[in-house]
Design brief:
Length: about 230
């Protein structure tokens, strides 16, 4: 859906703070993650929201130290360089999607843009932990299917999951594009179902949800696949 109005929501889970911005024109969810008592912030999926993110960082008195892409599609990464240059933050993406920051894709065509190739500072791997503040640990979960290097970020202490385009409310990411893999997506969704029912899910598009809310349709869908991987 094409939109034109910025939306914003603030979430607090114990000492963890999440600022969620819905950025036009493709209604991307972008996130600023930080911890009470710290001025350090991690940004997830800049999309076309670099100016809005910078404004919110300023309002909150935060400095971005790391930018993380959940995957390499242009609608999530197009203004990475703008934010990196403005903040000095490091740019991270899974090692299998790093090449995507240097190529055009379907999202670039739909947006009518030709992004400049860039290089990440950090190539992420499954199981890696990203630290924010004193007690926030975001674990990298490699969840291929939408792209080869799609990831989710999971904060176990507060049970918060940033799912990118792997899992949505009542759906999951497309598996018909370059580098997509339907079988890999099934494996990734099964992996996410291992998380607790009360895990909050923050997808790359659409409303927030929980693992418990998504479990019924996911289990039904996965059962029709008869466990094929």
């Amino acid at each position: 859906m094409i939109g034109s109005k910025l939306q914003r929501r603030s979430v607090r889970k114990d000492s963890l703070r999440i600022e969620a911005l819905v950025v036009p024109p493709l209604e991307n969810n972008v996130f600023i993650v930080y911890e009470d008592g710290s001025d350090e912030a991690l940004v997830i999926d800049v999309a076309m929201g670099s100016s809005q993110i910078l404004q919110r960082l300023k309002e909150l008195g935060l400095r971005a130290s790391l930018i993380v892409n959940t995957h390499g599609h242009t609608d999530h990464t197009v203004e990475d360089e703008n934010l990196r240059n403005a903040t000095g933050a490091k740019l991270a993406i899974h090692e299998l999607d790093a090449y995507r920051l240097a190529v055009s894709d379907e999202a670039a065509v739909s947006l009518g843009i030709s992004p400049r190739p860039i290089e990440p500072d950090i190539q992420l791997a499954d199981g890696q932990e990203l630290n924010i503040g004193q007690s926030t640990r975001l674990k990298v979960l490699h969840t291929p299917g939408h792209t080869e290097g799609s990831i989710c970020l999971y904060e176990e202490r507060t049970r918060q999951l940033f799912s990118g385009d792997t899992l949505f409310a009542n759906g999951y990411g497309r598996v018909d594009g370059m580098g997509s893999d339907p079988k890999a997506m099934i494996r990734s969704l099964k992996k996410l179902l291992e998380l607790s029912e009360d895990t909050d899910v923050y997808p790359g598009h659409g409303r927030f949800t929980t693992i418990g809310e998504e479990r019924p349709w996911l289990e039904e869908m996965l059962s029709t696949k008869k466990g094929r991987t």
